[in-house]
Amino acid sequence: MNKKIFIFIPSFESGGVERNAVIVANSLMEKGYDVSVVYCRKINAQFTKLNKDIKKVKLNRLPYLPFIHERIVDAISGVLFGFFVLQKIVDNKSVMISFQSNVVAIVLAKLLRVKVIVRLSNHYSNVEFEKSKLRKISEYLKKILYKRADVVIANSQELADDYSRVLECPVQVVYNPIDIDGVKHKAKKPIFDEIFIKKNKPVIIGIGRLCVQKNFGFLIRSFAKSIQKVDAYLVIIGEGSERQKLEKLIKSLNLEGSVILMGHKDNVFPYLKRSDIFVLSSLYEGMPNALIEAVALKIPSISTNIKTGPKEILLNGEGGRLVEVNNIDDLRKAIVFRLLEQEVAQKAAENSFSQLDRFSMDGMILRYKNIIEGFK
After folding, report:
1. What is the pLDDT of residues 265-295, one digit of tens each?
2. In 3D, which of 68, 93, 84, 71 has the Cα closest to residue 18?
3. How far apart are the first and last CA of the chain?
């Protein structure tokens, strides 16, 4: 009898973590495992992409709590209700894979006496940028509790190296699995947005949640400087809590006709494919999916040279330009150069594409399978 796999993700929203969870869940189901997804709250954008045969285990959720972020409510609900629901369906060979709220997952797994794999997806330097006591508490709890996990994995080599020292336990590298063929196929879908149809100016694109981490204000300010040299559009795809702040910034810089906040798109790839440059402006990451997907489509890319992720994807600058975080002039120069020197930009994109097999879905799913089968 194949092992039961429980994908633990209390807040099933629409970001990169959820896309990874869907790929892993569907792929393990195809490998013959009995897969369940455990959640408290969902947004259908990614949730509906789960294989219909995957069991969906919805936990009860506490009511709305004033001044408390929804994800915190989901995590608390996972602790309070997870044990009572899961104890009825787990067995002694079950394995929990946590994509979110890892501390909760470790506690639940120990109570349930099942194996648990936890993923590290962002560098601990995030506490320098996010004014959140919760993040600081989370990093503190990691040092105490992650040693109790059966396996800790990280989505980049540098992330694994740094956390293995901090946590004082082994951390394995399992890159985010990317369905490269799927990305190429989805990129062929038609789109009808005027700036992509007429294409009378180059298009620079950013993709991600409108949040502090993605640092789109920095991108917009740098773009404002770059169009003094080369006219272009900036398209940002994503939704989030920073929208109003970004809209005010766009207005203050008189960029209403040049910067477009397109909101959430279920399929970002046709927009990415038709863009001239992809820019990752983040303050921190683990291994950014959007940058890997840009490489998969051979889009010339620029990224902030943050602690982990982009250096590995862009081959330390040989596969795309790396710029200093929040250095507006550095990013401005990179954008202008990429727009004016398209042959050089395309050659760099080809370099990074040539080593994309590192992130192949089949290879990464095999890594998960080997870890799971390694449990007695």
Report:
1. 989 999 999 999 999 999 988 889 899 999 9
2. 71
3. 14
